[in-house]
Specification:
This protein has seven helices and nine strands. The protein is an alpha/beta fold. The protein has one domain: Spore Coat Polysaccharide Biosynthesis Protein SpsA, Chain A (Alpha-Beta Complex), CATH 3.90.550. The strands form two sheets. A seven-stranded mixed sheet has the order 5-4-1-6-8-7-9, sandwiched between helices. It has a two-stranded antiparallel ribbon with strand order 2-3. A hairpin with a 2-residue loop joins strand 7 (132-137) and strand 8.
Length: 199
């Protein structure tokens, strides 16, 4: 069973005023925090891999330079569903029904490797295979979220700015509690980037 982490570095940053994913945050571009953590997590694990989805030439070129699998998604500006579908199609035909897809947004720099591990561990439980799973904090759902590959047809039916939460609402969802509220907080404005420089 494989777990495919689809890293969505394709948001429009409308409230930020510029491309927030490239904005410096704690010494490196915002999008690198989650990506670097995921790469470290996947190192040495044959069952996990990462695929980056982006509409930005700078990120595309950097991923190609580093040899990180990447899908260019120029239609992502139209809404979240386009990024989700680009990621799924970018995986090609290698996905089996027993596999899982994990969608991870690139503007949550504080999500921990431990929380990602606990989310993915749900797919390895011997007695129950969840249809979906989501990181939460005190009952509030957030990202990342995990989907059985059997739900790919439903994910491909998403339209415009619809996200995976629409699919989750139709199925049983296993909640994985984050250790800290900050893990689920994203950077939406320059003020966020300045104020949320947590240790």
């Amino acid at each position: 069973m494989n777990k495919y982490i689809i890293y969505l570095a394709a948001g429009n940053s409308r409230r930020f005023g510029s491309n927030k994913l490239l904005h410096p945050y704690k010494g490196k571009p915002l999008y690198r925090h989650g990506l670097d953590m995921i790469q470290e997590f996947c190192r040495g694990r044959k069952d996990c891999s990462v695929l980056v989805v982006t509409q930005y030439e700078e990120i595309l070129q950097q991923m190609m330079k580093e040899g990180i699998p990447v899908v260019y998604s120029p239609d992502s500006y139209k809404g979240m569903s386009y990024s989700i579908k680009a990621g799924i199609k970018g995986l090609g035909d290698e996905v089996s029904e027993e596999d899982y897809l994990i969608f991870f947004v690139a503007d949550q720099p504080c999500l921990s490797k431990m929380t990602l591990e606990r989310l993915i561990r749900q797919a390895d439980l011997p007695d129950q295979k969840p249809e979906t799973a989501s990181v939460t904090f005190r009952g509030k759902p957030g990202s990342p979220a995990m989907f059985s590959a059997r739900l790919i047809p439903e994910l491909l039916e998403l339209r415009e700015d619809e996200g995976g939460r629409k699919v989750i609402r139709r199925h049983a969802c296993t909640c994985v509690e984050a250790e800290d509220e900050r893990e689920l907080m994203d950077i939406d404005s320059v003020q966020d980037a300045l104020l949320r420089r947590w240790d």
